[in-house]
Amino acid sequence: MRRPLIAAVLAATIFNCALPARALELETIAKAASEYHNPNAHLEAMYRAALLNTSQQATIAPDGTAYLKTGDIPAEWLRDASAQVRPYLYFAKSDMQVSSLLRGIIAREGKYLQVDPYANAFTLDYRVWEQKFELDSLGYPIVLAWSYWKTTGDSSIFTDDLSLGFDKALETMEREQDHARNSKYTHKELHDDSGNAQPNPVAYTGMIWSGFRPSDDACKYNYLIPSEMMAVVALGDLEEIERQVYRNLIKSNRAKTLRAEVQDGIQKYGEVFTPNYGYLYAYEVDGLGHQTLMDDANIPSLLSAPYLGYTKPDSFVYKNTRKFLLSKDDPYYYVGSVARGIGSAHTSDGYVWPLALIVEGLTSTSDAEKRDVLNQLLASDPGDHLLHESFDPNDPLKFSRKDFGWPNALFSEFVMTTFNGVPQLPMGDTSDLEFRGD
Q: What is the crossing angle of helices 249-265 and 225-244, to 10°?
């Protein structure tokens, strides 16, 4: 009986969004940018541009939600939007304008999950832009809502409508634990040249099948370990939300059970032994003995595991993994005269991604490494004071994506937490989990 009601509500929402959206002006963010001063004039200019970038991508839709495009592509990604507003959490508790933006983003993401939980990107009028099933796209809205709640103390975001979106996310994760038996999802990029579906065979592991990486590229093996890590964090958040806010112990226990099964799968299948590095996390596995040893710049990544709240920077397997990822043995680690870092198969060979550089700094335990990362990011500026998708580490004037909001948001968070003394924002709590060697 609920499905026609959902359809009617969404139809009304789509109709309303045919009207023009309103541009967003956030006085507190503009003031914080203008009042930021640093002896390094280059850092000052880049931080100001980075902090303002999210508000420049955002609009308030006629239905009262907030729409946040990724940049030079006229669509909103669940992943990108959740990450783009993250630094604004610092201002949300004391400023109603900023709080309204975050509330609007969270509400809209709940509607997206109801429209299609297999889609990763949507338009202003709630049409699917891309239906690439990426596990992290289900995790990011949950983590953002939980982080907003914990940062501001405001639980009013947890409406009945958002609950319906979270229901879709949980149902989809449960279904995709056994993709071969339970799922009908497919995508043209997962087909062969003749158009026939060719899903990679996988064993049942307790983990959740994903069709695509956070880069929007198809998985080689469909248990994507960084996204499984994020799912563990998000499911812990959802367990707490269902138990403490919605008072639904059935859903809370479902999230708890799934979280434990995914974590067991990571420990059993996602950790592999290598002669040179010992135990480390694979990037992808199939549960049948195959794995890819690499990382991709997009987050969730293996390098970002502590930033996600999954593990600690000094944990045994993470330290081994980090040594591998930041070495020539990682096929996507590139070194140039200006910068060195992790890239992606999504962009040109040899190009470094600022996202990966920032994550390297955010997860480092070395002040020297953090400062070195900052200098590389400053050196990557092609002259517009913005961070881009990727760049040639020998010539930053060669880059991809003229306008890409995500790295700019992450850069402002990096500067705030690493150099301005602001505490890192929470994503979730995995202190109850056991990890190899810890």
A: 160
Measuring CA to CA, which residue among 354, 330, 340 is closest to residue 408?
A: 354
Judge whether 384 and 391 are in contact, CB under 8 Å: no
Q: How far apart are CA 48 and CA 375, in angstroms?
A: 16
Determine the straight-line distance between the first and last CA of the chain, rounded to whole angstroms: 49
In the chain, the percentage of residues whose pLDDT exceeds 70 is 93
What per-residue confidence (pLDDT) applies to 8? Answer: 41
State the Cα–Cα distance between residues 188 and 358, nearest whole angstrom: 33
Q: Residue 180: what pLDDT?
A: 93
What's the pLDDT at 321? 98
CA distance 48 to 43: 8
Cα torsion angle, 305, 310, 315, 318, sign: negative
* Residue numbers in the chain where pLDDT is lower than 50: 1-17
pLDDT of residue 329: 98
Which residues have CB under 8 Å from 329's CB, separation 6+?
276, 277, 293
May I ask the CATH class of domain 2-419? mainly alpha
| Beta strand 395-400 pairing with 271-274 | unpaired
Residue 102 CA: distances (Å) to CA of 64, 301, 305, 331, 434: 12, 24, 24, 37, 33
Q: What is the 3-state secondary structure (H, E, C) of 230-255?
A: HHHHHHHHHHHHHHHCCCCHHHHHHH
Please state the domain extents for the chain: 2-419
Longest alpha-carbon distance in the chain: 62
* Per-residue tokens: 294: 């690499």
Continuous segment of H or E residues that includes residue 280: strand 278-281
